Amino acid sequence: MANNQRNRVSNAIDSLITHLVPAGPHDDEPSVQERHDACFDLVRNIFERPGSPAISSDVNHASDLIKRKLIQSNPSQALRFSNLYTRLLSLPVLNQKWAILYLLYQLSDSPDPNEPPPLSPPKPPPSQQAALRPAEAERRSRALRASRASTAVPTPEEEVVQDAFAPGGLKKLPTEKPKRAQPAAAEERLQAQPPVDGTPRKAARDVSIKSTLLADNSNEFEPSEMGLLRDLPFTLQGLSSTTLPFAKDTVLKLPPTLPPPIVSLLHTLAEPSLLYRGLAFFVKSPAKGLLGQSLRAAINNELRSYLTLVATLEGQIRRALSALDETAPRGGIGKAGVTLKRCVVWTREATMGLRLMSLIAEESNTKHGGQLISMIHGFSTSHGDPVVAAFAERLLADVTRPFYDILRRWIYDGELSDPHLEFFVREQSPNDEDRKESKAKGQASVWNSKYEVVDAMVPSIITADFAQKVFLIGKSLNFIRHSCGDSQWVDAYSKTSSKQLCYGDTATLEAWIDEAYKTTMRRLMHLMSNRFHLFDHLQALKNYILLGQGDFIALLMESLAANLDRPAFAQYRHTLTAQLEHAIRGSNAQYDSEEVLRRLDARMLQLSHGDIGWDCFTLEYKIDAPVDVVVTEWGNRQYLKVFNFLWRVKRVEFALSSTWRKCMTGARGVLQTSDEQVLQTWKSTRGVLAEMVHFVGQLQYYILFEVIESSWTELQNNIRKEDCTLDDLITEHTKYLTAITHKGLLGARRRQFHDALKDQARDPADPASSATTEDRNSYMVQLSELLRTMLAYRDCVDGLYSWSLSDFTRRQEADAVHLMHRNKKAKLSNPNPSATAAAAGLDMDDPFTTSAGGAGSLRSELPALQERLGQLGASFKARLQILLGDLAYQPDVDMRFLGVSMNFNDVYQPVKRKRPAAAAAAAGGGSTAAQGQGQAAATANTSRA
Amino acid sequence: MPPNERAEKQAAAQQAVDILHEIATILNCHLDRRTLSICISMIENGVNPEALANVIKELRKQGQEAQLESATAAAAIAGASTRRR
């Protein structure tokens, strides 16, 4: 059996030899036989040699090798191979499939046997050599000498050719190579039969010669490519080696003896080495913050995978070097499959990564926190190269980890654990300029002054909207925990809903954050309305401070009136509080909750000399900790301002109506007189008084109903919404207060059309002066003037009343005296009818009356009173007309309406205030455009007039 | 061995050679069908594939040399003939 097998094998060898080494037509029989024998011996020798034990007789192993090779070189063929392979496996005939496959694998990419063999330089045809240029010929011979010196193999040229056709070389020209090879081979075969002319074959030979020359020429440098390859792994790891030392941190020194192509290759290879060195240094440098640390960690990870690549490369190089034939030219590197060029190709992708990382590392020095994330995110979203984008994306997942940790702590615990100030939410620094300013305005509160969003630090992975939401969530949680004292809820909440956040799934993240947002906001509003009675407080503020609770205010005023007429220093707190208590007990306010009532307090404002009680009295509603974020210090001041104004109006109304009552009751008794002049005075006085009562009534109606109630309804609508947040609440409340103070004629500046124009024209010039002029004209000032006038008038009326009263008593006395006289006279003489008539008239010029001097003085008071009353009445009317004139040109509809309701029957002529001529000149001088507008306005004025 | 079984086996072998030849083409082995079938039979008879690969490479080299020699000879003849002319 064994014999049989051997026979078969030798037969096969025979046929193989005859097939592969065909006998030339010119060879004679013995030489053919001789060659055949030699070949046979050679083959035998090879077979006798022990085969490498490394080959495992596994069919899969061989196919895997092939597949890997195909995927590397020609992926489209890999699939075809897989198909063929499965078909092969299903065939029953072959026993040694793996061996066949392995054979094919070994033979793969072998040179075409039909290709013309390269010309052996020792025996080129003379014509060919002559065709070469002398210089080239010389160089070639030098190269030959060198190669022959280094190698002593019998057929060095063969090796050289195989070098030139090494897999690397073939792969570079996958289509061109066979095309060029095939026709040449065909011609060769054609020419082989009739060997007449050498020209076509010469072309084929040219190719061979060139490749030979190329292979030879690249041979001549020191250190050799082998040495360079050996040192390359170290260089790639940033370590100095003998051939390629690092001169400095950023300088790699190349040996000066290398030829330019190799130098350029080494330049390419030096890039990753230097970048790696820089990055390794960067990774070891201390980080400024958590994000910096995570960036370093992420880069370190990437560097580790780079080192893995270098390790694989080193393994390849070592294997190749150990397999090298030391004696071959160029160390036979080409055959080993690992060359410097290859290394360049292999490290190319890694170089891209390193380049990007060093760019990021460099930029990260100046960036901080969120900006860092934005920067990397910028690479991942807006860089055109998908490789770079993917790389940055991967880097981002690691880098953002601390950011998301902070975010998680913030939105689930409400704690800002950000020691390096990298988050976009930041605690406000107390000496900030803005903060001081808002504190001065009284708008600062725990809610809006504790934290702030730093826009520059919002990373681009989240939108501004989203950042605002995140900010609100954390702020609310923090507020609930620290200001509302409800940390149990926060703890429970963070336990139940805390989730691990990480980069990537933006939609889920947004959903979570939305959910967190809703939960926190709901809780906060719940706390505010139920535990801290925010809405009750707002209602109470409206009832007591804005005089919504009429019976209470009326009672309070009544009981305090006598007290407050006294000077301010005679007011005592205990009396005030006692009266307040009395007012509460006596009105519906007693049914209000204790929580509200105990906050109500009456006190005196800071008194100045000459004030009376009315000027200083104020009611106060005390607001404490968590609610004061809504009703801020500023809000409190606004409330007080409105209260003081309303209190004054109320007081004037109270005074006027008490005087009116007095007059009305008096008119039926003590004021009855027959003096035409006095009657006339009283009539006009009552008229003016009625005007004033009308004015005050309209004013009160307007403020209480048109302004406060409507704003209140609006506020209620807005804050009772389902998704109302504390921020909304605060803004709405501020809006409410502003509306009240503005429409209530307290905050609004009198802003005429001209003034507005003027302001626009010379806005930056001197805003201070325009502000002062506006201040002087503000409604507040006008109204207090009006109120003062009314009070003075009322005093005057009281004076008139007392004069009338004293006049009346004097007349009564006079009557009594007269009666006595008459009685006496009647007793003494006959009654005089004319005397009774005289007595019924005025008794002024009765020379007998005892109070004649007093009567004279009383008489002289009347014109003074008349004059004063007339003066005050006229001034009231004038001021009112000015006010009406201003109101008529208000942009606000409600305020215009106030003017209309006060002057519904056109009793008053609203005065359009003329702009001072100086101001007109200034505005005209400002700019021609303004002048034009000013003139237009002036003509409009005149036409209106 | 019954004749139909034999024919079947031959067909299968033929198929195997087909497939392997295709693989060889994919891999750029430059093996023609005859060489391939010789190789298959050798391997089936227990020859080490690695050694066989070496043999084939070696033989190709020899063949090329032989060709070259014959070609130079032909060239020499051609040169001689031109010179003679």
UniProtKB/TrEMBL annotation, chain A:
Domain Gamma tubulin complex component C-terminal: residue ranges: 534-908
One GO term (biological process): meiotic cell cycle
Pfam families according to UniProt: GCP_C_terminal, GCP_N_terminal
Annotated Gene Ontology cellular component terms: gamma-tubulin complex; microtubule; mitotic spindle pole body; spindle pole
Occurrences of domain Gamma tubulin complex component protein N-terminal (ranges): 229-529
Region (Disordered): 111-207, 918-945
InterPro entries: GCP, GCP_C, GCP_C_sf, GCP_N
Family: Belongs to the TUBGCP family.
PANTHER family per the UniProt record, alphabetical: GAMMA TUBULIN COMPLEX PROTEIN, GAMMA-TUBULIN COMPLEX COMPONENT 3
Protein name: Spindle pole body component
Species this protein is from: Staphylotrichum longicolle
Classification lineage: Eukaryota, Fungi, Dikarya, Ascomycota, Pezizomycotina
From TrEMBL, chain B:
GO BP term, example: microtubule nucleation by interphase microtubule organizing center
Keywords: Cytoplasm, Cytoskeleton
Domain of life from the UniProt record: Eukaryota
InterPro entries xref list: MZT1
GO cellular component, as recorded: gamma-tubulin ring complex; interphase microtubule organizing center; mitotic spindle pole body; spindle
Localization terms from the record: Cytoplasm, Cytoskeleton, Microtubule organizing center, Spindle pole body
Pfam families (alphabetical): MOZART1 (PF12554)
Major localisation: cytoplasm
Family: Belongs to the MOZART1 family.
Quaternary organization: Part of the gamma-tubulin complex.
Function as written in the Swiss-Prot or TrEMBL entry: Required for gamma-tubulin complex recruitment to the microtubule organizing center (MTOC).
Name listed for the protein in its UniProt record: Mitotic-spindle organizing protein 1
Taxonomic path: Eukaryota, Fungi, Dikarya, Ascomycota, Pezizomycotina
